[in-house]
Design a protein that fits this description.
Blueprint lengths: L5 H10 L7 H13 L2 H17 L1 E2 L6 E2 L5 H4 L4 E8 L2 H10 L4 E5 L18 H9 L4 E4 L5 H13 L6 E4 L15 H9 L2 E2 L9
Parallel strand pairs: 3-4, 3-5, 5-6
Antiparallel strand pairs: 1-2, 6-7
Helix pairs in contact: 1-2, 5-8
């Protein structure tokens, strides 16, 4: 792709670094920005820059936040005795979109995958146990993608919670095995949350 402007080329190259964005799509985005007023473009770039520099992560659940505690954890109207364990931010957005869940969340930051070098130490599992021990959590809802890695993570966490007075459930298998949680439609996900089952239905916790 040949450009008549170095500035356009640099902008296209930056957009093309985003996942799923090729050079042609990046060029369309850049040309669209050229049609806008400079004030609109400044607002666009300013919002991105401010987000990247000022975003924080909740000290309790590890979700993105504007302060030390995210809006969900700070909401007294939610059920603080119920914590939904998810892999990442996108899963929180997916579940929130169902409008069927009113508890809190805990973001692991991934799932166990030894082949990729991701072990328990790389995930937010220790802080989850700490929340259960200190915050009166009565139920952990395991809402991880139904894959081998996801089930392995569920099993590991359940073993770590043995001896603690907490019920562990998992979302119903309305989500197909091998599927990604974030791509499930809202109705299926809502039913999976509502019809969650005891973790013993899926894995054996016997030593």
């Amino acid at each position: 792709m040949i450009f008549s402007s170095r500035l356009i080329e640099e902008a296209v190259n930056e957009f093309a670094k985003l996942p799923g964005i090729g050079k042609k799509t990046a060029l369309r985005m850049v040309l669209q920005l050229l049609k806008k007023d400079t004030a609109e473009v400044d607002a666009f770039t300013g919002a991105i820059s401010k987000m990247r520099h000022e975003i924080r992560f909740c000290q309790s659940c590890h979700n993105v936040a504007d302060s030390d505690v995210c809006e969900i954890c700070a909401n007294r109207g939610r059920n603080h005795a119920q914590v939904c364990v998810v892999e990442n931010i996108r899963d929180v957005i997916a579940i929130e979109s169902t409008q069927q869940y009113n508890g809190l969340y805990h973001l692991l930051g991934g799932i166990l995958s030894p082949l990729d070098g991701i072990g328990p130490e790389q995930l937010n599992i220790a802080t989850l146990r700490n929340r259960v021990e200190k915050n009166g959590v009565e139920e952990l809802i395991m809402a991880l993608s139904p894959t081998i890695e996801g089930d392995t993570t569920v099993y590991y966490i359940a073993k770590q919670m043995k001896g603690l007075p907490v019920q562990i459930t998992t979302i119903a298998r309305g989500i197909a095995f091998g599927g990604e949680l974030e791509y499930a439609d809202e109705m299926t996900l809502a039913r999976s949350i509502a019809k969650r089952l005891p973790i013993e239905n899926y894995v054996s916790l016997k030593s």
